[in-house]
Amino acid sequence: TTTTTATTTAAAPSPPHLATMDGDSNSPFNPYARSPRPYRAAQGLALGLCGLRNLGNTCYMNAALQCLNACFHLTLYFLRNDYTAHLNESNPCGHGGRVARSYAHVVLSMWRPSRPASFSPSAFKRTVSICSEQFRGYGQKDSQEFLGFLMDALHEDLNVTVAARTAAPLPPLRPVRRTSRNASLSGLYGTTTTTT
Known about the structure:
The protein is an all-alpha fold. About 30% of the residues lie in helices and about 0% in strands. The protein is built from 6 helices and 2 strands, in the order βαααβααα. It has a two-stranded parallel sheet with strand order 1-2. Helix 1 packs across helix 5. The termini are far apart. The relative contact order is 0.13.
């Protein structure tokens, strides 16, 4: 007797809407799944996999952007537009929300299903050049320094200030009587030195 086995191939699932890419157990974007299945866009590229074109010698910037793009929860935060609830345009240490908005544009461009194989982050580069003298121009820079700048800029642009907490007033300072020149440190150890 001869046994034949029929093999069926399931059709590839269509790309999910960006709003459904959460950490639930049915989602292929669950960071805790044992074997995530990347959805494919129309061109056959996995969502989120997108090249960044160099603008002169901006590979340092592209490397940092690709690293942050691979941070699932951060990327999801921007894809869902959750960041808009945290924009702090009045933070004097921030950049008026410009860096956060521009970074969100990069993330959305890299994750949209109809994107090209590579994307030019020229608008993001212009924003960075306005916000930081160090990264003006198109010469080679240090990727770690750029990543540090970008993380700090995102932090400050998205830093939600909480109303100042009222704390109990500090007790008044007691005057310290020095008995000798060497006695200033001896009080730390519970001993006193007196000079006679």
